[in-house]
Design a protein that fits this description.
about 10% helix; six-stranded antiparallel β-barrel; about 210 residues; about 40% strand; 3 helices; extended; Elongation Factor Tu (Ef-tu), domain 3; mainly beta
């Protein structure tokens, strides 16, 4: 399984060999540094932790700085652990880049969706609302009835209500890698990926 951390740079378009227009997202993949390798004997499971995006020490906690200095690495803003079956070939300090990916591969891209703040049921759930006339008074964007009768005498669990919208972990699955630029650590995938520009994303190629 191949994996990496990256930054969403934005969307663009390209034309494939048949001349078809393809909407694609440009991702800066790494460079990432291996910061920790977990083994079954010591940790109970096998995984590789990688870091991305160099920063000044003041941006990190003392624990994070000490963890990275132990591996002779510079301060890194993002740390993420990927569980894999075989950690052979991974050593602290190794650099991972876009050359780990190939055109035509299918990848899962994981990120956090844009936060929309507190939203009503129209925006969050697509409710249509009641009639705009025929007695309707100051109730145009309300959700309507939300509860049951005496039994059970409460609101059902999972009832769609107003609340915070967005800023949740989202996985875009099976995106086609349409272009790889190892020299500049750039990856282009077909379609959209979660999050805003410059947002952190995880790219995973699973063994299918």
């Amino acid at each position: 399984m191949s994996f990496a951390l990256g930054k969403k740079l934005g969307m663009t378009r390209i034309f494939d060999k048949a001349g078809n227009h393809v909407a694609a997202t440009l991702i800066q993949v790494g460079p990432c540094w291996v910061t920790l390798v977990r083994s079954k004997a010591k940790d109970g499971y096998t995984a590789v932790q990688i870091g991305f995006e160099k920063v000044k020490e003041k941006a990190l906690s003392k624990a994070e700085i000490g963890h990275l200095k132990k591996q002779n690495l510079e301060p890194l803003r993002h740390l993420c652990e990927f569980r894999i079956d075989d950690v052979a070939g991974y050593n602290p300090g190794d650099v991972l880049g876009a050359d780990r990916f190939q055109e035509g591969q299918l990848v899962d891209v994981i990120g956090y969706s844009k936060g929309r703040g507190f939203a009503g049921v129209f925006k969050k759930h697509g409710f249509h609302g009641p009639n705009a006339s025929h007695g309707t008074h100051e109730y145009h964007r309300h959700p309507g009835s939300v509860g049951a009768h005496t039994d059970p005498g409460r609101i059902w669990k999972g009832q769609r209500m107003p609340g915070r919208m967005g800023n949740i972990r989202v996985t875009a699955r099976n995106l086609d890698v349409v272009k790889v630029d190892p020299e500049h650590n750039l990856l282009m995938v077909r379609g959209a990926v979660p999050g805003a520009r410059n947002g952190l994303v995880e790219i995973v190629v699973k063994n299918r």
